[in-house]
Amino acid sequence: MAAEVDPEYFDPLAVDPEEARDVARWRTAERKRLREARRALSAPERNAVGDALMAGLERLLGAEAVGAGDEIVSFYWPIKDEPDLRPLMTAMHAAGRRIALPLVETRAAPLVFRLWTPQTRMQRGHWNIPVPPPDAPEVVPDVVLAPLMGWDGAGYRLGYGGGYFDRTLAALSPRPFRIGVGLASAQLPTIYPQPHDIPMDVILTERGTEVSA
Ligand SMILES: Nc1nc2c(c(=O)[nH]1)N(C=O)[C@@H](CNc1ccc(C(=O)N[C@@H](CCC(=O)O)C(=O)O)cc1)CN2
Ligand SMILES: Nc1ncnc2c1ncn2[C@@H]1O[C@H](COP(=O)(O)OP(=O)(O)OP(=O)(O)O)[C@@H](O)[C@H]1O
To answer: What is the similarity comment for this entry (predicted)?
Structure first.
């Protein structure tokens, strides 16, 4: 039996429930604060952030460490004032790179990834997030871009609280190269990482690379 348990799987019984509850409550409050701060950006400010992030990503995704070859890179379709990286998705597709997007196909389960091209007819998925249709090929990405609601100097990420990226990364072997993408102002002293939280390899903001494993 024991041999069948993934040694990297965290033991929920080893987590102090009171502490976990406090962290969850704190994260909910921080998500709300960070969401409001992001919403308050003007359109020109938001565009400048997007442009800087795309320049940073072009540099990172062209670098040797990630491999400039045939890797599949998962982006995200922007919701809730997230920086818009779609121009880079289009440019990379035109340059012959394979682009994927994440989908919640089953609640509280790992994300699924499907290929995207500029011709893909997006449809509404869980949480109203635009996603590729079921006939888009399912793939496993080599590089995953994860939008950041918040981040810390140890490379940990705060998302929307569904635990989707953590669940997904825990299930993938080998683990994809993880790039957290978000606002410099969304930095937190710590997100109080819990056993289920999987750190990013790189955190990229409009200032450039903030954290690199
Ligand atoms: N643009 C974009 N696409 C993305 C993500 C993202 O962060 N940004 N995701 C990144 O993961 C995934 C979707 N993430 C989701 C995260 C939470 C919930 C959700 O239902 N949240 C509940 C609270 C959940 C809970 O506390 O257990 C809610 O707000 O009601 C849905 C989707 C995949 N696609
Ligand atoms: N590997 C996992 N297995 C089972 N449950 C998990 C796993 N990872 C996270 N969770 C659950 O998801 C919940 C939310 O996690 P967390 O606060 O880290 O979300 P998040 O990273 O902000 O969300 P998202 O990635 O969806 O944007 C956790 O309380 C935990 O119960």
So the answer is: Belongs to the 5-formyltetrahydrofolate cyclo-ligase family.
